[in-house]
């Protein structure tokens, strides 16, 4: 190859390299000028105005917070996250948050977690709660004859001024048997009514263990089978307990027509029936019913058994025996589990996005608020991070919301 040919080949190679470099540089510049458009913000991303030390992002679908300083510690993040009551921005003509709610708290259905959600909302919004005046530890009105004399007075009403109790209560989240006539006497007009149901097999097994029937040697399955061989109908917590809490007298549990009639009555009168097995999905329906924010429904799971304390799975024959014994609860659960999915279908196209967004908030809440998990007996308890704000303390410390509401209502009763 002569020198002239070599020179020409080299020149072509140099020009090709230069052209390739120019093309790549233009592509990078174009990407910088026209980046990928950000995902649209979640519909709820404007619901909260955060603490002055950080800014609300404008385009993250998971509502991430953009911190001004990097390398922020976990404790500092929690302090920056929320300092007090969320401040609601104008929701236009969409809806207005609703402050009146009766939650019929059923037994062993995840109801303690839901109770705390309701209590926190009511605490921040200065609501008057239905409480048993003689139960300062829990406030429950469980399986007792109830009238106006049973109740702790609402805010700014004197103890014993029973005429002033009428239609003056905003919320109820304690154990109280569903009695629509009595509740309409004491609750404010326009109150919403909700409850929660759990698969009767799971609910029965949980109650069996919680109320001490599984103590001693031997498997839970063996003990349940033995109990069902000679059942004791008078044991309220082990005899169709969910429909009992919802107002059907025990003498009708095996009257198919009366059970069906009561279920239809509940379907007409209750605004929402949550399902324990789909707790997060249920909370989205509650949020929509009440026009609450996502921060109003975030929670730390309370009063639950740790995995190592759970019974081995029950056999199918035993499950069938439990369903037959709890025949009214089985009908109740089947009906509302079916109608539940109709409500999910009617929620709208944003359901999946909202559910994912909510689960992300749940994870962030746990990471920012919980220091340790502790097994206490058959329950899991949590310790809150040091120097936590109320946002965390009220959600981690199980008794804190009730204690504050009870004290405020007791102190604000006129003497």
Topology:
Elements: H1 3-33, E1 54-56, E2 65-67, H2 74-81, E3 101-104, H3 111-124, E4 171-172, H4 180-186, E5 192-197, H5 200-210, H6 220-229, H7 241-245, H8 256-269, E6 272-275, H9 279-290, H10 294-297, H11 316-325, H12 327-347, H13 351-369, E7 370-376, E8 379-384, H14 390-396, H15 400-411
Parallel strand pairs: 3-4, 3-5, 5-6
Antiparallel strand pairs: 1-2, 7-8
List keywords for this structure.
single chain; 415 residues; alpha/beta; four-stranded parallel β-sheet; two-stranded antiparallel ribbon; 15 helices; 45% helix
Termini separation comes to: 113 Å
User: Helical element count?
Assistant: 15
Poorly predicted spans: 20-93
What kind of sheet is the major sheet? 4 strands, parallel
Radius of gyration: 28 Å
The amount of helix comes to 40-55%
Strand order of the largest sheet: 4-3-5-6
Number of strands: 8
Report mean pLDDT, rounded to a whole number.
81
Order of helices and strands: HEEHEHEHEHHHHEHHHHHEEHH
Strand proportion: 5-15%
Based on helices, strands and strand pairing, what is the structural class?
alpha/beta
Task: Give the overall silhouette.
Answer: globular
